[in-house]
Amino acid sequence: MTLSTRHLLGIKDLNAQDISLILQTAQQFKEVLQRPIKKVPSLRDITIVNLFFENSTRTRISFELAEKRLSADTISFSASGSSVSKGETLLDTVNNILSMKVDMVVMRHSASGAPHFLAKHIPAAIINAGDGINEHPTQALLDAFSMQEKFGSLQGLKVAIIGDIMHSRVAQSNIYLLSKMGAEVVVCGPPTLIPKYIAQAFDVRVEYNLQKTLEWCDVANVLRIQLERQNQVLFSSLREYNLAYGISKNILNGLSKSVTIMHPGPINRGVELDSDVADSDQSIILQQVENGVAVRMAVLYLLANRTN
Ligand code: CP
To answer: Per DSSP, what are the bridge partners of residue 78?
Structure first.
């Protein structure tokens, strides 16, 4: 089986078979990662460049590790310290790198659509590692893998995405994926951080009350306030946000059921999540990070096979 697309630009472009194939392949790679020797020769002779024009901890390390586990040759590039600061365009930067015979590009960029632009102009396979407020497809895939691992299936699972929906590429990719895989999705947050027409545009329900949302859901995927993407005041203060939408152990203990807590990171402790929740048994945040390596190995492997 192969993917229906030669790039991974967004979950929007994948069908349910593609998503299932990635999750099944990731399961096989997760088993490889439990072995004493965690390296396989699957991508020997494939050269991958990681282009990070925006900061990252988890995604960048996870991709680099996934590439090394697959025996690919890798180069990592950060915009800071490069000739981008001298005014070089994105296309010139990438074409110069590609002239050194690169097969695949993993790219994070603050501009929504930057990887789509590259895919139109260069022959290498492109993987979107997060573009502006558009999509973060491998985050949604690792979130889905982690939910499937915990609950057995995504079909009928009740997932709440809580927080800054407006500026979150993680929210958008999760909504696409969960809808395609038969989960039920509620988005919850202050009205100013939820796009006005989201319920018409996507298969989601909007809820403004945190308590009601938590009583409904099996999983709460909690997002941080993306202050760096906001150019206006959309809520009064982080303290007030925490009072209305912050998840504390007290709130969870008052529910009639146990809710699984997820977060893509980085966490703003004491704002969207209290430490005793983030570090509790109900949280699968570090399992998400662990699963990210296997999921990214699956994506790289399947796309490399697609281009060969
Ligand atoms: N989840 C995520 O994208 O984290 P980083 O920004 O650290 O890569």
So the answer is: 52
